[in-house]
Write a structure and sequence with these properties.
This protein is an alpha/beta fold. The protein has one domain: Glycoside hydrolase/deacetylase (TIM Barrel), CATH 3.20.20.370. About 35% of the residues lie in helices and about 20% in strands. The strands form three sheets. Strands 1, 2, 3, 4, 5, 8, 9, 12 and 13 form a nine-stranded mixed sheet that branches. Strands 6-7 form a two-stranded antiparallel sheet. A two-stranded antiparallel sheet has the order 10-11. Strand 1, helix 1 and strand 2 form a beta-alpha-beta unit. Helix 1 runs parallel beside helix 7 and helix 6 crosses helix 7. The longest helix is centred in the C-terminal third of the chain and has 23 residues. The two termini are about 20 Å apart. The mean pLDDT is about 90.
């Protein structure tokens, strides 16, 4: 790991189609979903960058062959979960509102469905609405997850149990008892990149590197530059940028914003004298260990 490296990853949350996605919505059709997934992958491949898909289990099943092909091309496949969009829509609470046992049982079902769809268990995770509580990381670790990108620093939306005020805003191992500070659990959180000085109108939510966000290209420039500048000044050991989008019509209308982000992160990294390293969430976690996974203790599960 070099402090002159800047690890950059682009992620797409892959939702269920809208008629079966009352929690947060989704694409109008599976055709729209597939087109968005393909376009996202094409842009990143053309730009020589990396990324991954955070996939609802039903979407993993619908597009299984496409996702497996993209994985062979270097894209990461992880699990994204909106409780309200799962199975028969009977899971009516937000993940962050569930008790420890409810989360353990529900996330176990979700993992099983995702595994059945793609033939292996997921290792990376993102919570729908970024809704979590103090039990979630511990349960994710118990279930075999090793990377997460569920923290949005300074998000404060209690209605969906997504409160990240005061969260450590940079990549870190998770504390097993407190999700807001760095810790020693072998579960690695890579937060979404936000502009802590600007908020989305009507949400009180910090701007992020969201392709379809209602903001200008200058806002994205500022988010990228201010984050890089601050990480350098604070000597953050693992410097990361995490962008986000969704498999919806909004992405297809604004996909050229992704091209802009891809070009601008390269320009900004050069200007600040950093080595841009295209990476997936798992590869960022691996880099935090110096490129080699730590040796397993007797009886311990492989962290990958």
């Amino acid at each position: 790991m070099s402090e002159r490296n800047l690890y950059v990853t682009f992620t797409m949350d892959c939702e269920r189609i809208a008629e079966h996605a009352p929690e947060g919505g989704g694409p109008k059709s599976w055709q729209v979903s597939e087109e968005a997934i393909r376009r996202f992958a094409e842009v990143l491949t053309q730009k020589g960058l990396k990324g991954g898909f955070c996939i609802q289990p039903e979407t993993a099943k619908e597009h299984s062959q496409l996702f497996l092909r993209l994985e062979r091309e270097g894209f990461e496949l992880g699990l994204q979960f909106h409780c309200g969009n799962f199975r028969d829509l009977s899971f009516r609470k937000y993940l962050g509102s569930y008790s420890q046992e409810e989360q353990r049982r529900t996330l176990g079902l979700v993992k099983a469905d995702w595994n059945e769809a793609l033939g292996r268990p997921p290792k990376s995770f993102r919570a729908g609405y970024l809704s979590m509580n103090d039990d979630t990381y511990k349960i994710l670790y118990e279930l075999g997850f090793r990377q997460s990108s569920s923290c949005k620093p300074e998000r404060n939306i209690p209605a969906v149990y997504a409160v990240w005020v005061g969260a450590y805003p940079y990549a870190r191992h998770v504390d097993p008892n407190n999700r807001l500070i760095p810790g020693n659990l072998e579960l690695y959180e890579i937060p979404l990149t936000v502009n802590w000085e600007k908020r989305r109108a009507g949400w009180g939510d910090p701007l992020d590197l969201r392709v379809e966000a209602p903001c200008s290209l200058n806002d994205h420039r500022e988010t990228i530059d201010t984050n890089i500048d601050k990480m350098i000044r604070l000597k953050v050991p693992m410097k990361t940028l995490v962008a986000i989008t969704h498999n919806t019509e909004n992405f297809l209308e604004k996909w050229r914003v992704l091209e802009f982000m891809a070009d601008y992160v390269k320009e900004s990294a050069r200007r600040y004298g950093l080595n841009l390293v295209p990476a997936t969430l798992e590869e960022i976690h691996l880099a935090a260990h110096g490129g080699t996974w730590p040796k397993k203790e007797s009886g311990e599960h492989d962290i990958r």
